[in-house]
Structures are given as structure tokens and as C-alpha cells.
Design a protein that fits this description.
single chain; 231 residues; alpha+beta; seven-stranded mixed beta sheet; 6 helices; 17% strand; disordered C terminus
Length: 231
């Protein structure tokens, strides 16, 4: 995608996550890596009213906090920018206040290995970061710590973050995180889940590495040609 297409994709995904119930109002925010810049939703702007020109651009390396565009970036730009600076493999970040993830975040509960899909997040838990006020450097610092080796986390008394190599994968992980949060919450109501072991999660992660349609290379080796987004 070119820069304008990425900007429009951000808007489309914002509208989609609200339509699906993954987010409400303008509480969520999305960012995408575009070359040496980060594109991010503007602050307190209804998604349906956004145009590509409204998406703010911030240099990933350069003057920290500088931006261009007619509207200032989301108040959460710090953790978006700091994640992209610390993790060059991350191409997109989705932050929402989805209901069940936020319920667990309010209770400051991490999500344990209650379902094998937790392996998609890089380990056997989805951590809950400590509390810090929205928009602060402190929040960015605790979020980075909770995301160490992970593709998603909860933010205490706040919401959740999902990261991925592109916006489609980051959004898929945000949906998966909310799904696991909902399943875990309801399992607690009937006595709590039977947790998977570290070995079982490691086995799942190994399986994910080759999951998808496979083609033969010319040298006879296997290669993955398309990754599914559901299992």
C-alpha cells in the first residue's frame, strides 16, 4: 500500500472495530508503520468523520513527539511510538477498550493458558501491565514491559494492546485477545479453567510456525504460501 492507502486502511479498520463491538466511540486508536514514519489516528475524532488527511504522521526516529497533519495525534501516541522504536518487526498496533479484556484489566488479572490460541501471543500468558494514567510516559513504560516477548497485553484499569507485522494481523490478534478474555471470564464463573502446560503451549507455538497451505519448493523443501487467520 502507498501512504494514502495505509491512511484509508486505518480509518476502515477503526470503523470496523467499532461496528464489531471491539471498541466504543473514539476510545481506541490504531497506528501503522509507513517507511520511517508512524501513521496514527488523531485525538478525539469520530472515525466516520476522518479522511486520510486527518491521520497524523510522526517520525519513528527523530524529534520525539513531533508530528504533522491538521489534527494532533492520539493521546496514546507515546506507547505506539515507543513500541515501534523498540520492536522493528511491529508494523501496526491496535489499542481498544474491548469489554472483556477491559473487565480483566480492571481486576488486574493476566490471562493464563486457558486456550491454546494464547500461543499466538508468544507465550503461555497475556500479561496485565501495571496502572499509569492514559497518555503518559509511565503508561508506555509499563506497556513495553508487559509486551516483552508478547504480541498483546492488558493495561490495568484501561484496555488492551495488540501488535502485529501489519494491520490485518494486529487486528486479528486484537479480536483473538478479546475472544480469549471472554472465554476466560466465563470459565471463572463455573469454577475456573483447566490450564494448559508450558509444554503444551510450546507445542502449539511450534505448530503455528508451519500452519497454513504448503507448496513444494524446487529443491523439494516445504514452504508456507499463505497463513490462515483462524484455526
Amino acid at each position: 500500500m502507498d501512504d494514502r492507502q495505509l491512511r484509508q486502511s486505518i480509518i476502515d479498520h477503526c470503523i470496523g472495530m467499532n461496528a464489531s463491538g471491539l471498541n466504543q466511540g473514539t476510545s481506541g486508536n490504531i497506528s501503522v508503520r509507513s517507511g520511517d514514519a508512524m501513521l496514527i489516528t488523531p485525538s478525539a475524532t469520530p472515525y466516520a468523520a476522518m479522511t486520510p488527511e486527518h491521520i497524523a504522521a510522526m517520525p519513528i526516529e527523530g524529534e520525539y513527539g513531533s508530528w504533522s497533519g491538521p489534527l494532533k495525534p492520539s493521546t496514546e501516541w507515546r506507547f505506539h511510538l515507543d513500541i515501534m522504536r523498540a520492536r522493528p518487526e511491529v508494523g501496526a498496533i491496535v489499542h481498544t477498550h474491548s469489554t472483556y479484556a477491559t473487565i480483566l484489566a480492571i481486576a488486574r488479572k493476566e490471562i493464563p493458558a486457558c486456550h491454546y490460541m494464547i500461543a499466538a501471543f508468544g507465550g503461555s500468558t497475556i500479561r496485565c501491565a501495571g496502572y499509569a494514567r492514559y497518555g503518559t510516559q509511565e503508561l508506555s513504560d509499563v506497556a513495553l514491559k508487559a509486551l516483552d516477548g508478547r504480541n498483546g497485553c492488558l493495561l490495568a484499569n484501561h484496555g488492551m494492546i495488540a501488535v502485529g507485522p501489519n494491520l490485518e494481523k494486529a487486528m486479528w490478534l486484537a479480536v483473538e485477545l478479546e475472544t480469549i478474555a471472554r472465554q476466560y471470564y466465563h470459565s471463572l464463573l463455573i469454577g475456573g479453567p483447566v490450564l494448559l502446560s508450558e509444554a503444551e503451549i510450546a507445542e502449539t507455538m511450534k505448530g503455528f510456525a508451519t500452519y497454513g497451505l504448503q507448496d513444494r519448493k524446487a529443491d523439494g523443501e516445504r514452504k508456507t504460501t499463505r497463513k490462515k487467520t483462524t484455526v
